[in-house]
Amino acid sequence: MTPYGKPERAVVTGGCGFLGQVLVRTLLEKEIAVTVIDLPEKEAYLPKRKGLDFQPNVWQGETERKYDVFYHLAWAGSAGEGRKDGFLQAENIRQTLEALALAKKLGCHTFIFAGSIMEAEVEAAKKAGLSPKGTDCYALAKTAAGNLSRALAKEWGIRHVTGRITNTFGVGEKSDRLICRVMDAWEKGEVPPLTAGEQMYDFLYVTDAARAFAAIGEKGIDGKTYIIGSGKPCPLRNWLEEAMEVTGGKGDFGKIPFSGVSLTESDFDTGELERDTGFCCRVPFVEGIGRLWHWRKEGLL
After folding, report:
1. Which among 75, 162, 68, 74 is positioned nearest to 113, based on CA atoms?
2. What local confidence, expressed as pLDDT, does residue 48 receive?
3. How far is Cα 232 from Cα 204, in angstroms, rounded to an integer?
4. What is the C-alpha separation between 230 and 279, in angstroms, rounded?
């Protein structure tokens, strides 16, 4: 336990997003009041629940009410072509520091930054002597935002904890990320082209990811970066073959050359997360894939 104890009030930027909505629900279930900051048009995505408040991107609420934990999930261009947009990614860095400044103004003792496993991929590529690619703008900006906010948080006496997300998936996801892409193809009866699938991967169901973030908000240690994953990394092909058994889909392995850097098992190590917070994965990958596939087949997408 940290000396802070269980938070009473939290702020979540990007709380109307895929992971954000589940995190908000998780915090409310723990009887933590939540204020969501997101784009004004996304307010309709949130349910009307006791203890839940919404603020548009520019904070218009009172600042006299004090909060405990500030979760910064909001990030533009986290997938697709936006990852290559250096100007957009630079703006994300500024927005992160603005979020930290607001956390300070609201009296938060803890700032939780949502990182990405792609940061580890860029670090590994650098060690291998490879030059950055356009799509690395996203991970480079995440690294910069995390480092800058950590330094500033230390100056301001705010506990700073990073949750480095591996790959989340689950009911409610609408994106062009891997699991959704292959399921799009399977629903059309297509066989998507894939790499050989030898690179290491990890997947975590969205409710478990939200529980992990709630746990580090309460018990995470200042300055640490926790890997948010299942703790059971294996080659991507293994994951996809399990998904194919559930859905009946197929994949053309080896059709696409893999041009990245394969991470090691240690890059996916969730040991510190488990030791410091007591977190453990509850939803097996196969069960999570079944839930998502059923949700899509029911026409709820």
Report:
1. 162
2. 87
3. 10
4. 10
